[in-house]
Amino acid sequence: MKTVILAGGYGTRISEESRLRPKPMVEIGGKPILWHIMKQYSHYGFNDFIICCGYMQHVIKEYFANYFLYNSDVTFDFTGGRNEMTVHREHTEMWKVSLIDTGRDTMTGGRIRRIARYLDDGEPFFLTYGDGVSDVNIPELYEYHKKSGGILTMSCVHPSSRFGNLDMEDSGHVKSFREKRVEDSGWINAGFMVAEPEVLRYIERDDQPFEREPIERIAADGGLNAFRHEGFWQCMDTLREKELLERLWKSGEAPWKVWSD
What letters, b where the CB count within 10 A reaches 16 and e where it falls short, cover 164-191? Predict the structure, then answer.
C-alpha cells in the first residue's frame, strides 16, 4: 500500500527556514521532518512512498539520491591516481521512494491529481502532509477506514492552545478564568488520511486545495469519516513549532518516535 506525502508548498510561515529549503526538509534532530514522517509509516511496514514535490524539489531529490552515502561510513581513496570508494558500514531503509514533480504553484488537490498514475489501480492509499508528526497508529487508522465504508478517512485531533478562557459579562466583568484545555478546542484535520481511488474524481483542477471543495463535496456525499486521535500531534508551520519539536527530540522523549533505532 502506497503512502502519498504532500511536500511541494512554499512554507511561507516558516520563511526563516523555507527560503533555504522546502519545509519538509527542515531538520528536527539532524533529520528532515519528511524523514520522521516516513519512519513512522515504515515502522508499521508501509515502505512505498510517493512524494509530491514542487518548490525547491531538487533539494528533496538530491537528498534521496545521496541517501545511501549520507548514512554509511566510507573511505575515498585517491592515492596512485585511484578513485575508489569503500563502504565500511551501511544503514539504509527498506524504502521505495517516487519523487514526482507536481508543479511549483499547484495546490494540494492538484498535486494528488497529478500522481494518480503512480497509484496502484483500484487500491486505497495513505495520504498526509510533509510538515506534521504524530503517534497515530497507522494500522488502527487503516482498519477503521475499512470498517467505515467511506472513501476518505481523516485523522482529527484537538489543537493545542496557548491562551486561557475568560467567562466575561458585557460590562467587562470577568466571572471566571481558567487555562484553556485541549478538549476545549474543536476537532481539526491532522492529515494522516486513508483514501480510496474514488477521491480523485472530486479533484478537477490544479488550483484546487484538497481541503476545500473536494473534501467538502466528499463530506456532502457521505464519504468522509473521522478517526479521532487523542494522542500526540504537532504541525511545523512556524519557527516556534520547529523549536518545540527540536526540544522534544533532544529530550529523548519525542512522542512521535514509535520506531527503534
Answer: eeeeeeeeeeeeeeeeeeeeeeeeeebb
- The string of DSSP codes covering 113-173 is HHTGGGSPTT--EEEEETTEEE---HHHHHHHHHHH--SEEEEEEPPP-SS-EEEE-TTS-
Residues above pLDDT 90, as percent of the chain = 73
Alpha-carbon span 162 to 180, nearest angstrom = 7
Task: Classify 205 as helix, strand or coil.
Answer: coil
Rounded to whole angstroms, how far apart are CA atoms 214 and 198? Answer: 11
> Grid coordinates standing for 4?
502519498
Burial class (CB in 10 A: 0-12, 13-18, 19+), 98: middle
Nine-digit cell at 143? 482498519
β-bridge mates for residue 213, sequence order: none
pLDDT in tens, 201-243: 999 999 999 999 999 999 999 999 999 999 999 999 899 999 9
| CA distance linking residue 91 with residue 246, whole number of Å | 23
| Chain segment 234-246, per-residue pLDDT in tens | 999 899 999 999 9
Q: How many CB atoms lie within 10 A of CB 241?
A: 16
**Cell numbers linked to 151:** 472513501
- Positions in the chain whose pLDDT score sits under 50: 162-164, 166, 172-175, 177, 179-180
